[in-house]
Amino acid sequence: MRVTIKVLWMTRNGAPTGCPECSTGAVQFMTTQPFDGWPARGWCTVCSHNWEDVLITNALVRQIAAESTGRVKATDSDTFAVAAPGQYLEGELVPEITVDDLRVVWKKAYKPLLKRVIRQKKNKAKNAAKRAVVGTAKKTVAAPTAAVLKAAWGAQAGGWEPTDGGGIENPCPAGCDEGWFDLESHIHGSPRVVCSLCSGSGEYEP
Q: Which residues are 171's β-sheet partners?
């Protein structure tokens, strides 16, 4: 079975090693068939250079994959340290996703986001309820307020001297002439304006 290892960094006998083209340590090694002693194929994840590595054999790739520490927690690193004839390799592999990684991502990213979305929906619901309550309260207060103003206006108007309504059953108490007032003016003669209390009808309807 073909085995691939993804290396973040690696040292050979204490010296950094990696891509022979750009010297980066971020490389991959893949076993070739059929023999363990054959060189593995290397591939650079940075410059895409590929080569057959005579020092990294198929057997060494399988050994690194089998003996690396692996990861259980999100804080763990997948490291390796293996010996081969004439060389000692140490390094770190690209971390594989673990359950703890998902838990950490959920805790640090998605959980706060979900809380924020829920909070926004709650705030919208609160604001809608508040608007409904305020609207009802305004309507509740408006009706008696209008009644009070109407009563006050009636009491004030009732104190005026009513004029002869000219046959009108309930003449306007504002003193208008059947719904009109004649204004004295040297500029426009004597204009007439409609009475705002009876709206020009000459009758008062409380």
A: 203
59 has pLDDT over 60: yes
Distance between CA atoms of 88 and 85, rounded to whole angstroms? 8
Which of these, 142, 147, 3, 120, lies nearest to 64 by C-alpha position?
3
- Whether the CB-CB separation of 125 and 98 falls below 8 Å is answered with no
CB 171 within 8 A of CB 163: yes
CB–CB of 61/3 below 8 Å?
A: yes
The tokens for 120 are 């926004």
What is the 8-class DSSP label of residue 106? I
Take residue 161 and report the two structure tokens written for it. Answer: 């001297």
What local confidence, expressed as pLDDT, does residue 3 receive?
94
When pLDDT is averaged across residues 166-189 and rounded to a whole number, the result is: 65
Integer distance in angstroms from the first to the last C-alpha of the chain? 101
What contacts 32, CB < 8 A, 6 or more positions away?
A: 38, 39, 40, 41, 52, 58
Is the Cα torsion angle 67, 71, 77, 78 positive or negative in sign?
Answer: positive
DSSP category for residue 206: -
Per-residue pLDDT tens over the stretch 123-145? 776 777 667 666 665 555 555 55
pLDDT at residue 154 above 80? Answer: no
Q: Which of 40-54, 108-122, 185-199 has the highest mean pLDDT?
A: 40-54
Contacts of 195 (CB under 8 A, 6+ apart): 172, 174, 176, 179, 180, 181, 202
